[in-house]
Amino acid sequence: MPADAFDSAGPASAPTIVFLHGSSETRLQWQPQAQALSDTFHVIAADLPAHGALADTPFRMDEVVDWLSNLVDRHAGGRAIVAGISLGGYVTMEFAARHPEQLAGAVLVSCTAEPTGPGAALFLVATWFMSLAPLPLLRGMKHFIGRFLYSPEMAHLLTGYCFRGGAQGIRAVLWRSYIKKIRGYPGPVLFINGQRDYPFRSSERQFLAAARQGRLEVIPRAYHVCNLDDPARVTELMREFAQEVAAAAR
User: Fold this and answer.
1) Domain 3-249 classified CATH 3.40.50.1820?
2) What's the Cα-to-Cα distance from 144 to each of 158, 241, 247, rounded to whole Å?
3) Which of 30, 162, 2, 138 is nearest to 88 (CA)?
4) What is the pLDDT of residue 24?
């Protein structure tokens, strides 16, 4: 992986948390949590393929999971907590299904909607729009929404404009049952959803029931990017979870 495709901070000997961003975003999306948690943990915030520094690398799920496995091997000592939001959360669930031995625990944010059956409509519409809409229109809409919903300090963290790459990622998620993948993972899982993120909360109870060691937290008055709606609360929840995972591993 190119050195400019991820940021690393915190004590190298500490347990590692890998952060994976959402569709069309970059690793900046997790900046508040990565900065805060680097006081105790080794944190890695990476750009997904087809995004950021890896914008020219196609997003193919099999290859993305191999990429993540290689990152954990090389930079996290072979085992890490992985925190993914939206598209990053679905990648995390794929990783849990294929490499559970490398996953100490999963933090899954805004990704409890199944991209199969009727639920696939949400993903198909997003893929179609991000693939075909003019890029200036997409940039303008995202800029407006970011400035409307977030403070300037938070809005600048949502300036990834990898819309075509994001569409690739969403297509790679379609028609896969992620509830089944969570059911097969034996480790601890923390689900975090924004209270007002209704589309991606549609199957949260089914996901929670499928997890063998699952916990669900809903952030009041938050939307899809709940880690920026209430960064302090999401950081607090992640710190508690990571500390529990680290204590159990001793």
Assistant:
1) yes
2) 11, 34, 43
3) 30
4) 95
